[in-house]
Protein 1
Amino acid sequence: ETGVTQSPTHLIKTRGQQVTLRCSSQSGHNTVSWYQQALGQGPQFIFQYYREEENGRGNFPPRFSGLQFPNYSSELNVNALELDDSALYLCASSLARGVNSPLHFGNGTRLTVT
Amino acid sequence: EDQVTQSPEALRLQEGESSSLNCSYTVSGLRGLFWYRQDPGKGPEFLFTLYSAGEEKEKERLKATLTKKESFLHITAPKPEDSATYLCAVQVRGNTPLVFGKGTRLSVIA
């Protein structure tokens, strides 16, 4: 069983640039969630995708956007990067929506904005 | 607003010294409480889900318990490989996203 994989593992960008992060969900999982984890903090929910549709969004501005593809892989796009966007970005997949299907996380993409 | 508070922020134990981590929550109807382990530079690894007060789950040296206001993660005779950050998260009303605490950073010294 293949777990959740994310790419790239590390990325350095300049303020104002745009970035795309990628995620392949665990085999058989149709729901993908993205979280942002600042240093020393717990993960913060960005948004969730279920069958290619956005299915919930946290308190993040519209310059954070995403996509889910037919094979359930996903992308997180961030435009007009700000210094505060520096964080670990985590992708998590689950078998279905709801509490009986826990999230399984990838190892994240460490984004540094200078 | 749904809130999750974990304590202590950091805990240092000698190998074999048992202890407990706390996760207190304020939510409008708990559907599930989750415990995750996170190693440095890695994503959180799922440990347990608890659904109702009185429920307990065990895995190796870890046991999670749940009351109506808090959860405890008991670590019995810890080993250095148990060193990690332990995250607690709650879910309310079905398909709402997980709300995480800030975690407890556990160090077990040989």
Protein 2
Amino acid sequence: DIQMTQSPSSLSASVGDRVTITCQASQDISNYLNWYQQKPGKAPKLLIYDASNLETGVPSRFSGSGSGTDFTFTISSLQPEDIATYYCQQYDNLPLFGGGTKVEIK
Amino acid sequence: QVQLVQSGAEVKKPGASVKVSCKASGYTFTSYGISWVRQAPGQGLEWMGWISAYNGNTNYAQKLQGRVTMTTDTSTSTAYMELRSLRSDDTAVYYCARDRGRGNPAYFDYWGQGTLVTVSS
């Protein structure tokens, strides 16, 4: 079975900082990797699909990269409204989410 | 606009079953699949399964095989998820989500508001 390792599990950064989250798959998943944002008490929101494609309407400060086993999600300039938990999700096999990264403001 | 509206919160006893509905609007229901995702209190997201609204094909998470059934009613654009033999660790918020996959689950672009299912004696 594919395992997804997402890190860090939490981070604290200042407004305007560049924030990076990584997701590592236990085997090659090509580019079948998506990223979601979830705010407390809300449903998740799709931000990035197929590793690097920005979902319509999502601000351009969000980006994704990678292929194979190693993937990166970046917020180029952290904003107060970006406080949330972020999840990666692979679908090379049946969908599986990473453990999540809670992003807080320092 | 695309909307997925789920049924209300449920409280069930261990061993019982629950059936959650998800009514879709704003798009052609049979052109997409529906995935179900759950989230236990304070925990991460867990994909439960997927159903094609086009032909009813399903894929279920291995750990739920035999306990979960997903169906659709194309006449009302509604998807259903039934979970049987409920246990306390099934307590979670259950989400339906429109799945953009072509023939298999892929990624989820619109989500329902979530349905809290509490399993307690």
